[in-house]
Amino acid sequence: MNMNEFRSKQPLSEDDFATIRRNVMTAIAARNQRRFFPMAMRFALAAAVVIAIGVTFIAKRPAPKAIETVKQPVVIEKVPIAIATVAPPPATVTRVVAHHPRHRRATHPRAEYASTTQQNIRVEFRTSDPDVRIIWIASQTPSTTTGGKS
Amino acid sequence: MTAEALLTDQIEATPRTSATSPALLAVIRAARDGDERAFEEIMFASERRVSLLAWRILGDAEEVKEATQETFLRVFRHLRRFDEQLDFFGWLFRIAVNVCRDIEKGRRRRWIFAPFDQAMSVASSHRSADDTIAANDDAALLTRAIDALPAKERLAVILREVEELTTEEAATILGISPATVRVQVSKARAKLRVWIEARRGGAR
């Protein structure tokens, strides 16, 4: 049995071949047209589309509400004038306690004594702005020796 | 002598040279540079061989048209990659075999996903007209026997025995080693012998 006999007859006619050639050449022509479309033009087109979309998006977006601008205080770098004054001792010492009253620690008697005896120094810095003052209060402990047995 | 005639001569006279002839190379280069006329000449010169190979593999005229068209589109697409040291027709056949394989895969998918009655009609449509010939006719028997082979063995037999390519050429086209081609052809021959003898014996 001769193997060459296996489907030895051409299945396609001349018309079929002509159709195939025409289809292939049409596809190739379309492909070449696409290929020769300049790359830069493609990029330009893509960029134009992106810009158009962006502009449309921005135009459709609701206008943002006006935000009230708060005027920031001007900080003046001038050296403040320091006036050191000796403040009179306060009559009572009040403490602002943020804790719950139940958790408030009892004031130590020695501390109370110290508060009545210590002398506070009040240093006031005046800035060029009359409304702004920097006040520094420091306590000056008495220089008495404690715990000495005499 | 036109390039077309030159190509036809090359195919008919020395169809299986190891390298492409200078005349054919000139036409290929022209086609590669975008000369559509040159590509049409290549098609004109090789379409019959491609379609006959597709016919032997697929056995359906409509699929052969599809395969031939797709083969030349792929050839055009990959023409820049063609190595001029190699035989152009070996390269072309490799593309054609790959296209036929893809079409066969698509056919199998159609069988799987189509309803039963449609699948049967698809399965029967790809059979050749030779099948309608009487069963004891040698050519019809051979056709049915080759169609019954597994895909790999069928391709090896078609390239090696029917197309009469060398083992090395068949191996290059199929992308396997020459030893594997020999094994597949040997297995296929044995199966064909058994199949045909069984049919002949049954007919008597």
Set down the secondary structure blueprint.
The complex is a heterodimer of chains A (150) and B (204).
Chain A: H1 14-36, H2 39-60, E1 81-86, H3 109-117, E2 119-126, E3 133-140
Antiparallel strand pairs in A: 1-2, 2-3
Chain B: H1 3-13, H2 22-32, H3 36-58, H4 61-78, H5 88-113, H6 116-125, H7 138-147, H8 151-162, H9 167-174, H10 178-203
Helix pairs in contact in B: 1-3, 2-3, 3-4, 3-5, 4-5, 5-6, 5-9, 7-10, 8-9, 8-10, 9-10
Count of distinct strands of chain A:
3
Uncertain runs of chain B: 11-17, 127-133
Identify the biggest protein-protein contact and residues per side: A-B, 23 and 36 residues
The oligomeric status of these chains comes to heterodimer
Task: Determine Rg of chain A (CA atoms, Å).
Answer: 47 Å
Give the class of chain A from helix and strand content and strand pairing: alpha+beta
First and last CA, distance of chain B? 56 Å
Write the H/E string of chain B, N to C. Answer: HHHHHHHHHH
Question: Gyration radius of chain B, to the nearest Å?
Answer: 19 Å
Strand order of the largest sheet of chain A: 1-2-3
Average pLDDT taken over every residue of chain B: 80
How far apart are the first and last residues' alpha carbons of chain A, in Å? 140 Å
What about the largest sheet of chain A?
Answer: 3 strands, antiparallel
Query: What are the low-pLDDT stretches of chain A, counting only 5+ consecutive residues below 50?
Result: none
The SS-based structural class of chain B is: mainly alpha
By DSSP, the count of extended strands of chain B is: 0
Percent in helix of chain A: 25-40%
Portion in beta strands of chain A:
5-15%
